[in-house]
What we know:
single chain, 5-stranded parallel sheet, 21% strand
Amino acid sequence: MSEDSIVRPPAAIAAPKIGFVSLGCPKALTDSELILTRLSAEGYATSKTFAGADLVIVNTCGFIDDAVKESLDTIGEALAANGKVIVTGCLGAKAGEGGGNFVRQMHPSVLAVTGPHATDEVMDTVHAHVPKPHDPFVDLVPAPRASIGIKLTPKHYAYLKISEGCNHRCTFCIIPSLRGDLVSRPIGDVLSEAAALFESGVRELLVISQDTSAYGVDVRYRTGFWNGRPVKTQLLELCERLAEIAKPFGAWVRLHYVYPYPHVDAVLPLMATGAILPYLDVPFQHSHPDVLRRMKRPASGEKNLERLARWREICPELVVRSTFIAGFPGESEAEFEDLLGFLREAKIDRAGCFAYSPVEGAVANALPGMLPAEVREARKARFMAVAEGVSAAKLERRVGATMQVLVDSAPALGRRGGVGRSYADAPEIDGRVRLLPPEKASRTLRAGEFTRAKIIAADGHDLIGVPI
Ligand code: SF4
């Protein structure tokens, strides 16, 4: 064979490196996953340090003041260490003084600023500053299916974003001005992504959006197609199909950000059979109708205690997580007491509470009756004391039960135990099941696998169990 006829691979050229920081909520995390998937598909590598990168992307959060500060500090650090920084995410959409861009006003030397959900714009800016690596082999490979991308969560769970934006106008929130009105993803795309995630090893799918119960409203519940079958872009059909796709994998489907609308009742029978986890994350924010009206909350006219009672009648195992705001402008002591009463009566399993804090640009800032910070903080503390009592009593009732647990981590094959979660615990925000060494010495535990565990104690927000 002559020297000329030998096909040689091209000399290896180091791939350009991109530093990436993802801040904010799970919805921002899914935006980060899309950008990282595109970068990887185009041959870019990632850098663990700002200094070692050719360019840094910061996906920001702009929801509350602490998040804004964290985002601005991170951009500042990236600029100091690297100099080439692209900013994306919610804070990127925030208007600054005189109508200019807030991030640009704070950090004029950033290369570009985009709002959330702007993968194409971010990639265009990356290409302009760090040209796309040319790899004759990679370039011949078709682009990966959008449904199988890079995940920033552990292998065994994933967030599935079903829509962008929000049609509501809660007075304390600026998300609609950052993310726009509701845009539901086509149901066929959502279901294909779910199937691909389960096939890749995901055992828990967390459905997220700004308002999961509103899925499909913007497209009038249009009929889409999945696997050749018609499916409506609508919450119940979404849940039915997700349950069907999850079943062969024995996987969990968990719903977040669901508002207490009457049509949600139809999903409860699926929870009662375990097809969808009997867990609902319902951000009530308050109980008193006047406060809810001042907040302009969705479903504020609903009788939430009655709705919860009906849900629990259909599905007694239902676990409800919620978030609340204490000390909203004009909240009277009587209105706050109403909230504490609701918490006790509704028996919310997992309740989080924020002391009201004005978000720049929110309508609520102009409402009369802003309470002093000490009052807001004191009410939050009173709320949390009641919430913890309710939650502890509910956890105590689990002692003696056997629960299915998804193992999150188990060093040394779990012989010395590990950490997992039951259906009652979403990752990051709820409690955990602390697993002791398995009863049988031969039993192993691996992250991402299910085990059954006998609950022997409750401790704070957590349960303690022995794998069986
Ligand atoms: S429902 Fe209200 S709080 Fe939630 S994103 Fe929409 S406007 Fe904001």
